[in-house]
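Suppose you are handed a protein chain with no further information: no name, no annotation, nothing but its sequence. What can you learn? This example shows the usual starting point.
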Amino acid sequence: MAYAPSVGLEADAAARLAVGFAAGMRLGGTCGAVTGAIMVLGLALCEGDCTAPDGRAKLAAPFRVFNERFAEKMGALDCPGILGCDLRTPGGMATAEERGLFDTVCMDAVREAACILEDMIGAPPASLAGAAAGTVPEHVAETTARVAPTIRPYRESDWASLWPFLHATIAAGETYAFPPQSSETEMHRAWVETPRATYVACAADGRVLGTYYLKPNHPGPGAHVCNCGFVVAQEAQGQGIATAMCVHAQAEAVFMGFRAMQFNLVACTNTRAIRLWRRLGFTVVGTLPGAFHHQRLGFVDALVMYKELVT
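A reasonable first move is to predict its three-dimensional structure. Written in structure tokens, the prediction is:
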């Protein structure tokens, strides 16, 4: 709907046109984010008679480019390939709902489609204002500006709100190298006392939605590279909070004098985080075979991801 005015559609009409695209047209087929984006590309790029062979042929290339870029980011174009379960079956639908995939992976798909569209045809006019510049791509900064949680330094009074979702994340043993059995005292030391700084992301009503720490990755000759850890409360996931915190962290890191940011042990199974870090400009500089002991899946590969902040 963001592109509706620029392609001659009322927002309500665009919503009614696209309502059937979700969940692969309700049949678990092509992702609705893909179908909607292809519709936008056709409306934006078609010139003259698009029903004629020449008109259709001119659109083949941008359609192919979008599909290739989306598949590269999300792993597939269809719902089963993206979600890892088949929505055409009762069991697959139940799995998607139980894991909250519609609110997490599907939202990632929508954001990726929007980012690719913006690269191909520009930002929707209504969203151009307020785009921020800095150490992240413009389309990411603009998305973050729309989400706009309040990110501020940690206060000790935040711990009571922060600890439950931090504990749940660590205890799951699926994304962080902290021991799953870590006590509250141990995690307070690791998350608040040891780092250079700790921050929280808050909703308009003050609720703590996420947190991150910032610290040197190594002492001495490696102290110019920082390391961060990010955690978002379960109920706030899929709302751009992690993106906003990572954008904020990069700016804070530069302000503190760091020249680069490194994530040391990103479990290869943490595909959502990997997609996000890549979208924010991080690259995989190394793969460590079997280096992460996943609580459920056993030994899995871990990625080292890196981004220069000052060139």
